Amino acid sequence: MPVLIAVSKRAGKAIVEFDMIREGDRIAVAVSGGKDSLSLLHVLRDRRRISPVKFDFTAVHIDFEFSDFNPQTLVEYLQKEGFPCLVEKAGSLKDEKYEDIDCFRWSWNRRKALFQLADREGFNKIAFGHHMDDIVETILLNQFYRGEIGAMKPKQELFGGKITIIRPLAYTREEAMARLARELGIAGMGQSKCANDDTSHRMLIKKMLRQFEQENPAVVANIFHSLQNVKADYLIEAVQSPSHNVTKSPVL
Fold first, then answer.
1. Domain count within the chain
2. Would residue 201 count as lying in a domain?
3. Owning domain of residue 112
4. Fewest beta carbons within 10 Å, which of 40, 119, 172, 214?
């Protein structure tokens, strides 16, 4: 599978450069049912096959028990592919309609459930299927709508290092992930995003980036690498802290 090999190599580069995976790690792979997180399972299996570093991973799905979604198809796929899996029921949004839940609340509740599961089951790392486009969109979301500079870090330690978030697909473009999903025959089979994602600020930024890439194909990669190439002498520093009403935390 040529696309899997290519994506696996890029993931391997990110894993090494950001020191994402170490000997003996137990990794919970957050699987929503979308193409990216399912494809990540195949990538990690390929990395484990060729890596001298020994680690284990388990697919973890957070089931909000919405009436219009049953995770059974997802579980059957994981079992067919031989991926160990856990389904965690989270009732925090159970009495709400899926289409009425905004992206921030959906993501916050999912992450909370993942942290609780990781702590209970002894996972020291959680892997997300976010790729380079997701990270770049988040950088611009924080700048445009929160007045802050921040991004989804490829590796982020939380709770004093007790749990570490990793994003092995940080160097992989969205288009490559779409090709990989086609190669693997993967179709979305779960709640891969919040119900309002198609009309969200993120979608507006995605469309803007696509327009810019028609003129400069390096735009997304340049934005990604910009946070590793900060010219501190040219940042704005006020003598007194500016007062503003932006209180939301950066998107992670």
1. 1
2. no
3. 2-132+149-192
4. 214
